[in-house]
Design goal:
Blueprint (H helix, E strand, L loop, with lengths): L4 H9 L11 H7 L5 E11 L7 E10 L3 E8 L3 E5 L3 E6 L2 E7 L4 H15 L2 H7 E7 L4 E7 L2 H6 L2 E6 L3 E7 L5 E11 L6 H5 L2
Antiparallel strand pairs: 1-2, 1-11, 2-3, 3-4, 4-5, 5-6, 7-8, 8-9, 9-10, 10-11
Helix pairs in contact: 1-3
């Protein structure tokens, strides 16, 4: 599951208008946009411990309220990940390369718990799972999430994010020294933001 943690958590946090994990929750909630459909670009850089050159990837993401998240890596290798409450499906082209059932995979269930707590704005659940800290000014905010449970910390690590009306940057670091940075841009909302191909996957 470790190679998937970046995709899963980034997809969750890319929900943008649904993150309520900072201490000044009401203020951040009032600043965030909450569109039912949102798509955009992501640029990801992963620095592995002991390696000089980071691994880079980019693609598109879509978040559909009540349905799930679509994470489409375009470069360096095309791949599509669909996350719903019940399962995680990885597509290679039109073929299903992997399917994980959240009911039977403990790690999937744990990560999905975080994912859907973020998507639904379940602050009580997030505060149970994470130690939270954050600051807000007139037009921006930042949040730090530190897992309380050793198993969650091992699977996810510490998460830092910042934004305004939308999440702009996510930085994830684990105990092994790996560090992943994801930047979101070109965000569009509404049904027209999603292509027919993307919509068909939901």
């Amino acid at each position: 599951m470790k190679p998937m943690k970046t995709l899963l958590l980034a997809a969750a946090l890319a929900a943008l208008g649904q993150v309520h994990a900072a201490v000044p929750v009401a203020k951040i909630q009032s600043m965030l946009a909450k569109p039912p459909v949102m798509c955009g670009r992501f640029d990801q850089s992963k620095q592995l411990a002991g390696m000089k050159k980071p691994l880079a990837a980019n693609g598109r993401f879509c978040v559909v309220a009540g349905k799930g998240v679509l994470w489409r890596t375009l470069q360096p290798f095309p791949s599509t990940l669909r996350l719903t409450r019940d399962e995680i499906v990885n597509y290679q082209g039109d073929r299903v390369a992997m399917r994980l059932d959240a009911k039977t995979e403990p790690t999937v269930r744990m990560i999905n718990n975080v994912l859907f707590s973020l998507l639904s704005g379940d602050l009580a659940q997030l505060e149970t799972l994470f130690e939270v800290d954050g600051t807000v000014d007139a037009n921006s905010w930042n949040v730090v999430l530190k897992p309380r449970q050793p198993a969650l910390e091992k699977a996810i690590g510490t998460i830092k994010l910042d934004g305004g009306a939308y999440v702009k940057t996510i930085v994830m670091g684990d105990a092994g020294g790996d560090r992943t940075t994801i930047v979101f841009s070109a965000i569009q909302s509404g049904d027209a933001a999603m292509s027919k191909e993307e919509a068909a996957l939901f």
